[in-house]
Amino acid sequence: MRTAWADGPEFVTQCPIRPGGSYTYRFTINGQEGTLWWHAHSSWLRATVYGALIIYPKQGSSYPFPKPSREAPIILGEWWNANPIDVVNEATRTGAAPNISDAYTINGQPGDLYNCSSQDTVIIPVSPGETNLYRVINAGMNTELFVSIAGHPMTVVAADASYTKPFTTPVLMLGPGQTTDILVTMNQPAGRYYIAARAYVSAQGLTFDNTTTTAILEYKFAGCSAQPMLPLLPAFNDTFAATAFAAGIRSPTQVKLPDPVDEDLFFTVGLGLLDCKIGRTCGGPNGTRFAASMNNASFVLPSTLSILQAYRSGVPGVFTDDFPRAPPMQFDYTGANVPRELWQPVRGTKGLKLKYGSVVQIVLQGTNIVVGENHPIHLHGYDFYILAEGFGNFDPATDKARFNMVDPPLRNTVAVPVNGWAVIRFKADNPGVWLMHCHLDVHITWGLAMVLIVEDGVGDLETLEPPPADLPAC
């Protein structure tokens, strides 16, 4: 709160830390506990620069469930056998989709099902009868992942550092950026059981990394020679399983939603294509370049000054604050034949200003331009309530009746269903410049992002703090 300088995304709240330089992120943890994570936010560096950020209950308080016997992080990653910066730079040069990853990882290791990696497979020791807390984080770059543990149901107790109504499930689905805390009881015969993760792929016809990463849940006295059991994971394209999991997540008690709504916004999210420069042929469909956008605006990062610095200092020419509150043109967003003139977004660095304390509701509407896909949309600086999700085009006349106004989940990343929509609501009480983007990094590279500029309120406690002395220079 009030320390947007510690948020991290390059050229949004700061300039990147230079080679050999340093910057100390200073912020106060207030009213949050649970599992978050930290990661680089410059180009594709977060492919390997990431880790868990765990906030424990205050001293003297405890979890809202029986204290687990032990805890462990389960951090899902994505691995290339090449330098990931080279991968994205090559894709940017050609306009094609970047090469897919070569492996997924759990706590940095691919596991038994890849060549030459089984000697380093992660082993998580357990004892019979105990109930353990596992903090699952999807730190992958471009892939939503199904996760399961052989022979062991999982009870979800938190998501994105907010507690949930406990519910038991055989499978999790996490988009990049999402976290899920689970309780698992060791009630099976002593042995070795795989924890496994593989892709959930909602877009039709796209190539993807179809490998499976594993770690081993190993009971005491099981013996290291026992062959682990594999869990049954959903099919790669099992949207029903992904939807059912998301629908199970609810706030633990009735919530007091911010109300009434001051800003009723409608953002389309999806892909697009840009014409190649004259005389060149690019690597996208029919010689074009891949792009992505929100409300037909394809986000371009500045290169000389961060947006927050420009906003704070009144420097012109770095960004504009004319991001549209609704799509420039209404159309059949999820239809099979979106007019070709709508496939080409407009590039720019656009933000949208919000008054301090305003209640903001955003319909995030997926589109079927190029291909429909599930988009994990992350908002920096805020948690938000997910009021509803659905498929097809959002219809306010009928879909508002589906809003969960009792116990909607509080999250920081929402997986907008493939060719569908989600509605989120929050109070704009954290001043600064906050990036909203798809957490599939290939999509943010193509421009699926925008910034919300939350103005200062009244008095010091509603005002952005001054920039720190060690803020990196451009």
UniProtKB/TrEMBL annotation:
One Pfam entry for this protein is Cu-oxidase
Q: Where in the cell is it found?
A: Secreted, Extracellular space, Apoplast
- Please state every residue range assigned to the domain named Plastocyanin-like: 2-59, 72-220, 323-456
Question: Which domain of life does this protein belong to?
Answer: Eukaryota
Principal localization reads secreted
GO CC, sorted alphabetically, is: apoplast
Could you tell me which InterPro entries the record lists for this protein?
A: Cu-oxidase-like_N, Cu-oxidase_2nd, Cu-oxidase_C, Cu-oxidase_fam, Cu_oxidase_CS, Cu_oxidase_Cu_BS, Cupredoxin, CuRO_2_LCC
Look up the EC number in the record and give it.
1.10.3.2
**Cofactor(s) in the UniProt record:** Cu cation
Q: Which UniProt keywords apply?
A: Apoplast, Copper, Lignin degradation, Metal-binding, Oxidoreductase, Repeat, Secreted
Q: State the reactions this protein catalyses.
A: 4 hydroquinone + O2 = 4 benzosemiquinone + 2 H2O
GO function terms (MF aspect): copper ion binding; hydroquinone:oxygen oxidoreductase activity
User: PROSITE patterns this protein is in?
Assistant: MULTICOPPER_OXIDASE1, MULTICOPPER_OXIDASE2
Q: How is the cofactor bound?
A: Binds 4 Cu cations per monomer.
Q: In its UniProt record, which GO terms are filed under biological process? A: lignin catabolic process
> Briefly, what is this protein's role?
Lignin degradation and detoxification of lignin-derived products.
Family classification: Belongs to the multicopper oxidase family.
Specify the protein name: Laccase
Species in which this protein is naturally found: Acorus calamus
Provide the taxonomic classification.
Answer: Eukaryota, Viridiplantae, Streptophyta, Embryophyta, Tracheophyta
